[in-house]
Please model this.
Amino acid sequence: MKIIVNLATLLFTLTILRCNDKAVSREIETQLECLTELNYPMSVKRFYKNNDFQSIWVQSVEKPTKTWSSMLLLDCVLQYGLSHEDYHPEKLLYPKLREILKDQRNGTAEERATFEIYLTDALLTLINDLHFGKANPLLPRRVIDEGNISGFSAEAVLKNALGAKDFLVAISDVQPKSQTYTDLQKYMFLIRGQYLDDCYTVPEEEVRKVAINMERAKWNTVSARAYVEVNIPSYKLTYHLPDTSLTFKVAVGTPEKPTPELMSAISYIGTAPDWKVPNNIFINDILPKALKDIGYLEQKHYTIYDNKGYFINATPALLISIQKNPTGFVARQIFRMRTFTWNNGFPLSK
Model:
């Protein structure tokens, strides 16, 4: 008799759980039509529609490992240069989740569905932020939310991650693969994870700089086999090739006249451009050498112009006059230009 009673109790409990799950599914479908605080409402709708509006995170399971992994991942987004405040922390509360998962009869279907939806939206937001950046000027959230940007879908990533052996790795794998981003991410993980071990502290100045550059690195959507990247703060230009990279030092602008930031196709390259000689070099170095040897100017490809831009035919007498009053003259060094056309990402001499 006792066995029969226990079996009846078990069947009754299972029936309640199934009813609860169905009620949550109906509530998910209903709330998706009215919630206005989601970052990616269309993406969340597509995700649940493709899953028949079934609960993913608060369903009847004994060990909701991926639910807890998701919460912990959202807690520690600073290691990716992101902010915890962007992922619904006021909605995704640990006490509420513990209450829901402890007993499937705890919490109304409305509460469970709300938690479910916001957790999904937070994860889809994180996936897009990791891949595209959260402030991408070319791809704002409303554009990404329309879906399938260059073959990338946050919903597909999340679905695959749920079936993956390592959920966290599957999510973090959407980050850029460039060496610049990888180095920044490793450094950020080091200072946020191992040095500070605190996911909630507001980033210090150095951390902010790393986070900003990680964000910018996500905007780089270059898919060419070869491309040029200029790192302004480090004064370096890197020419990326499929099997190697070449790095060169470059001059950049000043805070008053900053180097413009852009992403553009390269149609040609000109080497040895015209160089306007600084006045102190012109007066103290070039003029004395030219007075000793008039052929020095031609040998070194120097030409002299007046302040109106007219070419000056330098003679010994004129050079002596210029030396006495050099303020109205400038020197330029001009090499023979060699141009390159761009063919399938590689330069060809012309």
Summary: Residues 7-19 have pLDDT under 50 and may be disordered. The two ends are 96 Å apart (CA to CA). Residues 222-272+339-349 form one domain. The chain has three domains: 2-196, 222-272+339-349, 275-334.
